[in-house]
Amino acid sequence: MLKKTAMLAIGLTAGVSLSAQAGTLEDVQKRGVVSCGVSTGLAGFSQKDEKGQWSGMDVDVCRAVAAAVFGDDTKVQYKPLTAKERFTALQSGEVDILSRNTTWTQSRDTSLGLNFVGVNYYDGQGFMVSKKLGVKSALELDGATVCIQAGTTTELNLADYFRANGLKYTAITFDTSDQTRAAFESGRCDVLTSDQSQLYALRIGLQKPDEAIVLPEVISKEPLGPAVRQGDDVWFNIAKWSLAAMIEAESLGITSKNAADLVASGTPDQKRFLGVEGDFGKNMGISNDWAKNITLKVGNYGESFERNVGQGSPLKIARGLNAQWNQGGILYSWPIR
To answer: Does residue 146 contact residue 190 with C-beta atoms inside 8 Å?
Structure first.
């Protein structure tokens, strides 16, 4: 009896597991689009233009997932979310994936019912001030008024940094990054603190961007990446490997321009990536050309970086830590084999 009960329990557990794993992919396929949570507007990461078209590095992750699932990167429905709204939207099923300049932390990974699928931008918190303030270092900010976006890791990082250095400050919090920028520009605060990438994005939105500077200090580690709900391993794998494919494509020298040609002429590693060999797509419940579709439709990580935040963009951010591991950075993908 005990043996039968144990076997029944195992069967029930397996049934629950399989049911959970099947959920999001089936829902997405029935709906015909991937529901993607993005920011309310951040240049280089997720921003909507006057024609209603979304672009940015975070947007490209969602496009990659759609390309993997449907072979079509346009099958995405974007949901703008504030920092305070983002986790609830993912937990409730309002979005299938959260790709919104979100820092991967231990508490978020273990207590919010979500899984981070990787890092699509290595960042760190910094400070932006007006040149008129005459400040060259964050250590000169004692007594400053600081604009912060609520519901972010910047609040605790700021408190830790100022306390560790014996500095005092007054915080003013806002729900959106646009509100923090407006408050900074109007002179309501002396300093705007956020991830450095966000500071550069907010600076180009100022009426006089040349009158603001980003100070040299980087006071935290901010690995930014997309997340999905826990308990759905199939969807977790698809999201995880969609991001990994963008990184691996660059490492393998596969681009949106040469991917089609390499199907016939590529190396063994390139052919595995492109789906010519192996069943790496079928293992996730999607077609074997999933990675090829991502590269053709969205491009590799380097292409995404350059057009959105790199030298081909108004932000002109250097690759830095976000360069490939063999090019002076720490960007590294798991092999597809």
So the answer is: yes
